[in-house]
Amino acid sequence: MLGLMLASACMAGPVAAQDASDPAAIHQSILTLDTHLDSPANLDQPGWRITDRHDVLADTTQVDLPRMIEGGLDGGFWVIYTDQGPNDARGYAVALAHALKRLHQIHDFVAANPQSFAIATKSSDAARIAAAGQRVIYLSMENSYPLGNDIANLDAFYQLGLRMAGPVHNGTNQLADSTNGEALHGGLSDLGKAWVREANRLGIIIDASHAADSTFDQLLELSKAPIILSHSGPKALHDHPRNLDDARLKALAAKGGVIQVNSLFLSPDKPRPTVDALRPQIETADSLPPEERTALMKQWAEANAAEPRSDTDFDRYMQAIFYCIDLVGVDHVGIGADWDGGGGVIGLNQISQIPKITEALLKRGLSREDVEKIWSGNVLRVMAEVERVAGK
Predict the structure, then answer these.
(1) Distance, first Cα to last Cα, the chain
(2) Hey, which residues does 232 pair with through a beta bridge?
(3) Hey, how many other C-beta atoms are within 10 angstroms of the C-beta on 295?
(4) 268 partner at 20 to 30 Å CA-CA among 18, 179, 183, 387?
């Protein structure tokens, strides 16, 4: 037995040394989580399955199990997204039905593929699930509009696995003002402030992406636990409402929070005539016969590739990440590229390509430990603190 142990120890040296200098090996060895995966929306597409391999150039989708394996993504926060509708009883009811449908779709694909996926509800779950060879499924709510005027609904979603939530999306709602919505509340409404308290009580990470600056300021002030920006960027690189200024990013870090850097809004949008011309057809694509729908989706994918949203490329995306690291420190930066929600850049447009991020971080001189903080350690630290505050 001693001889076998010595032989193993002798073998460990060269392997460890190789891992220390090989970006691909380092990427595969660390825990990688993205905090904003809009991929559950693809489950509405007829015949689309998360376990099949797809291609962004064929149907525009960016994440599936085969490409996660190829890209070494261990998982992340899978989004229950609800579009903003009217702030009235009917609007809330329709939104709630939609959000519950999406939540159950996520649970269903996990239950159907237990060897490949597992629901995570605690900060300690991610490493265990990844070690078992499964992909990590944390549940996130983008836009808490479906909760209506009953904050008790947040508890119901928590019981079904929800662990991150943002108050708003594109449009002011009953809880808070949005970056591109009307300034109705001056930040959070009274109901929104109650939402913050309930999120803290339950142990739900508060996500300030899409929140107006006034809302962000109040979320940061009122929350008893650190908050995050699950998919936002630095305003210094591009002055866009969805990005935050240096002072707010520093304030976020000072209270233990993290900016998960988005791949969107890092340079001005460009005209997209072909894409815009196809939009009306895409809105009714699900009603087409399968062959016609497949052909239309391919045409749509090709148009999106030919007319990218902006000139943002991989180097520009890394520039945004490096800027945030230099501004607030490596302990307060992560990855939230907005996959399947409009994200992706020239040179990084599907999840199989994310080892390039690790390689670029290492090339800049970050240690393996710091790279893992950016990929998962920082958000899990925030989650652990959110759990601690809830436990009090």
Answers:
(1) 48
(2) 261
(3) 12
(4) 183
Condensed to tens digits (0 to 9), the pLDDT of residues 304-318 reads 999 999 999 999 999
Quick: pLDDT tens for 224-254: 999 999 999 999 999 999 999 999 999 999 9
Q: Which two tokens stand for residue 75?
A: 């998982």
Phi-psi map region of 215: left, alpha, beta (phi>0 left; psi -120 to 50 alpha)? alpha
What is d(CA 27, CA 357) in angstroms, rounded to the nearest whole number? Answer: 9
Q: How many CB atoms are closer than 10 A to CB 127?
A: 15
Q: HEC states along 2-40? A: HHHHHHHHHHHHHHHHHHHHCHHHHHHHCCCEEEEECHH
Q: The tokens of 254 are what?
A: 């000072």
Any idea which residue has 């999106």 for tokens?
A: 304
Q: Which of 381, 268, 264 is nearest to 334 (CA)?
A: 381
The H-assigned helical ranges of the chain are: 2-21, 23-29, 56-59, 65-71, 89-112, 125-131, 152-159, 190-202, 213-222, 246-254, 273-283, 290-306, 314-328, 355-363, 368-372, 378-391
Neighbours of 85 (CB within 10 A): 17
Domain 29-270+308-391 has CATH 3.20.20.140: yes
Mention every residue, 6+ apart, whose C-beta is less than 8 A from residue 222: 188, 193, 196, 197
**Nearest-angstrom CA–CA distance, 9 and 355:** 29
